[in-house]
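I'm stuck. Please check this protein.
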Amino acid sequence: MNIQKHMPLSLGIRFFQIFLDFTERLRQQSWQVFLFKMTLASFAIKMPFFILLSLLGLGDGPTTTDTMMAQLDSPLVILAAALIWAPVFETLVFQTLPIEILNKMTGGKMVASFGSAIFFGAAHYPDAQWLGALLTFAPGLVFAWSYQVWREKSFVKACAMTSGIHLTHNLICLGLYQIVQLLK
């Protein structure tokens, strides 16, 4: 068997195991610490994809934020869409539904989380094409796993925590977007 041929898969599995261990340790901490660290994790997981695409010269496509800014002209509407509507609606549609269905079908939390993240990324494809789909897969995985962790406590807590992490992620994205626009 050629070990090098299977290296990306084994690295991916090892990375996911590290992520699971990380979230397991977070379970014992407060909800605020969980929210903060999972938001950071959503960017930490996204960065390798972003760096790789940039090195390959593929990181210049539109982002979801670019598309949203072009479609919505009012700053208040942009804030409402990014910080209220998207986190709540997308949690219900892209985490709750696929995870609940896939958990029942497969019984596996990892399978359900990956399925939810793929669905979440694919849903962002129309806005930001394949680049946006790939870059939203990573936080989608964090949102999905957060939902799984908090679902053990209650459905409402799972939805609230996942929406909170998503809201915080979007707030940081909007802030970074504005900084980049000022630097141009």
Summary: The CA atoms of residues 102 and 111 lie 7 Å apart. The radius of gyration is 17 Å. DSSP finds seven helices and no strands in the chain.
